Amino acid sequence: MLTVAAIAAYGFTTESTAAILLAGLLALPTSVPAVIGYYVVYGLLAQVSGANPDSSSGSVSCSSAGACHGSVTGEPATWFLLPTDITGILALTVAAVVNVALVRLVIRPRRAS
Predict the structure, then answer these.
(1) What is the C-alpha separation between 99 and 15, in angstroms, rounded?
(2) How far apart are CA 14 and CA 74, in angstroms?
(3) What is the DSSP annotation of the chain?
């Protein structure tokens, strides 16, 4: 459980697709509905105006001394990124917890027999 939580946290905070997929694989089979739930929440939050713009643009200007300054517009809002990352981490962590609970339910009756 903690391994899945740590890998998911790393994946979502660094935007590492490989880490998110690894956490999802480790939490199978319950990670499938968890990821579906994550994308439902993501989609609902994306409907809020200004959450996730359609396009992004930016500019950079450099002086003759080599000092550069840039600006970016159209990036996703921080209030949108933080909850979606937390939702992804929680979804995969809860999936791992549910897997452990399901395994215990299956193993416990077999031990009693």
Answers:
(1) 25
(2) 20
(3) -HHHHHHHHHHHHHT-HHHHHHHHHHTTTTHHHHHHHHHHHHHHHHTSTTSS-S--EEEEEE-TTS-EEEEEESPPPHHHHHHHHHHHHHHHHHHHHHHHHHHHHHHHHHHH-
In the numeric block, the tokens 């949108």 are attached to: 80
* Token pair recorded at residue 49: 């105006």
Bridge partners (DSSP) listed for residue 59: 71
pLDDT at 69: 79
R_g over Cα of the chain: 20
C-beta separation of 40 from 84 below 8 A: no
Which residue carries 């579906």 as its tokens? Answer: 36
Provide the pLDDT confidence category of residue 88 given band limits of 50, 70 and 90: very high
Say what the pTM is. 0.75
